[in-house]
Amino acid sequence: MTKKQKKMVFRLTVSAVFFIAAVGLEKKTVFAWSSFILAYLWAGYDIPLKACRNITKGQVFDENFLMTIATFGAIVVGALEEAAAVMLFYQVGELFSDYAVNKSRKSIKDLMDINPEYANLLKDGAEEQVDPYEVNVGDIIVIRPGEKVPLDGVIVRGDSSLDTKALTGESVPVEAGPGDSVVSGSINLNGVLEVQTTRLFDDSTVAKILELVENASSRKARAENFITRFARVYTPVVVILALILAIAPPLILGGDLGTWVYRACSFLVVSCPCALVISIPLSFFGGLGAASRKGILLKGSNYLEAMANLDTVVFDKTGTLTNGRFQVSDVAPVHGERESLLEMAALGEYHSNHPIALSVKEAYGKEIDPERVGAAEEIAGHGIHAQVQTEDGWHELYIGNRKLMERQNITVDTPSELFGTTLYLANEGGYLGAIVISDTVRSDVPAALKGLRTQGIRRLAMLTGDKEEVGKAVAEKLGIDQVYGNLLPGDKVEKVEQLLAEKPAQKSLAFVGDGINDAPVLARADIGIAMGGIGSDAAVEAADVVIMDDEPSKIVDTIRIGRKTMGIVRQNIVFAIGVKVLVLILAALGYASMWAAVFGDVGVSVLAILNAMRALSYSCREAERQ
Fold this sequence. Notes:
Elements: H1 3-24, H2 30-44, H3 46-56, H4 63-76, H5 80-112, E1 119-123, E2 126-130, E3 140-143, E4 153-157, E5 160-163, H6 165-168, E6 174-176, E7 181-182, E8 187-188, E9 193-197, H7 205-215, H8 222-252, H9 257-271, H10 274-293, E10 296-298, H11 301-308, E11 310-316, H12 317-321, E12 322-333, H13 338-348, H14 355-364, E13 373-379, E14 383-390, E15 393-400, H15 402-407, E16 421-427, E17 430-441, H16 445-454, E18 459-463, H17 468-478, E19 482-484, H18 489-502, E20 508-513, H19 519-524, E21 527-531, H20 537-542, E22 545-547, H21 553-589, H22 594-612, H23 620-625
Parallel strand pairs: 11-18, 11-20, 18-19, 20-21, 21-22
Antiparallel strand pairs: 1-2, 1-3, 3-9, 4-7, 4-9, 5-6, 5-8, 10-22, 12-17, 13-14, 14-15, 15-16, 16-17
Helix pairs in contact: 1-2, 1-5, 2-5, 3-4, 4-5, 4-9, 5-10, 5-22, 8-9, 8-10, 9-21, 9-22, 10-21, 10-22, 11-21, 13-14, 16-21, 21-22
């Protein structure tokens, strides 16, 4: 509990003592009146002051004004008990609201705690504690156990475990050693690390995430904007209606003026829009907090609303659905053993560090004798010409794409069922066979796509710059509806625009990419979702939703959180407006006292806030039930 909250608890306790004492006294005595007035002032002396201060700023019709007018009116007509009760319970509701908001903000505050306070700069063999802003690219910093990683960099000395939970939502520590990258915001758990920085603090992962979180509240959902506009119109209207209710009936129908003023005061108490003004933003804030705990950052509550209405999800292939890491998926020799063809390819690629060459050597898995490799020539855009030694002597080996085979007048015969990047091998004797290199599907992808189907996503599509048959092979394996291949970045934008035109008007389309080369498409979609936000500038800057690790299943969690949040928002709107309208009518007709008005305001607010806090409670167990 904060210092401010403790102070308010003390005030309300003293107010409650005076109120209870006054109730026990004979109501029309000076002591009873004095106790009610003291209870009123102890609980709510600041409300009239806030109302006056806001009026000077041009903010006339707010809840402070409504409470002040209603309670002053009750005091004028002699309803001191009701006036004190209204102020006491109103402040109890405000205290509860403040506590709920602080609790909902806790997840965001935990995320903000990743901001490092200092860096240990290694200079001339000595450590100096400096502000992270003073560290330059290429400097060496020392990170001791328990300290936060202040800047992005590469480990040059030391081994340790890193806690990345605040960034990714993943509770399992990450092992790191020399050559591994580290990102700011992580916590070093055990060993001492020396890290060479690769970015300035302003460009670091932690700085970009903090900027994203700080700006999230500025992008409001339509429901929040509706409530803001509603309160601006609603509050002046109810004040005018209360004034008419207090004056018109006695003048037209006759009767006691005090009775109608009392009804008007009850009308004002119940008309306060606190339940909506507090609970709706609180629901969205709770949803943002629940998402951040799972390593999902949204740039505004409007994207929670959009995720709840998701209809179409479009994926980039490489780096999103697949790992972006090549592996040998098939070996198709014309004659002989598969192992012999793979050995020859590994010999031919011996001097190359290209990812495809590395995947061939990894698949071969044996140490290569350099004496078996002669002169090698790289033919740009085609492949490699190398001299290699096999069991039957030295050969001139050609290994590369179809263009290389055509250049050497070699006819290739590749089985039609092979999909991927194909390496063709030939020697002076002719065509030897083909090796297919393909990207590997992320382990989390099948479960993610199944989860999207379960959530009622109508259409799944994939865009790729690879050959269409390669894309179709991956899509067929994963159960994706539509595939578009051979696309440049501009072509991807065009396809997304086409899919946007085909979706229902009230639904949204999300594009999921790795955030490196998909920025134009991420920006064009209704929702741009970047995978692997850690270390990726483009992911944080171009996307609307950032999944801080590489788990596509987090998209399903985001949809569930969005739908749960929107369900709570709708419940609060219907409940609060329904109860208030009912009590407003009863108060105007004289069937609802100011005690009923207190329930219609404070009671409804507390119930709506309790309901709103459910948005923060999204858990893995609940995800499994859904």
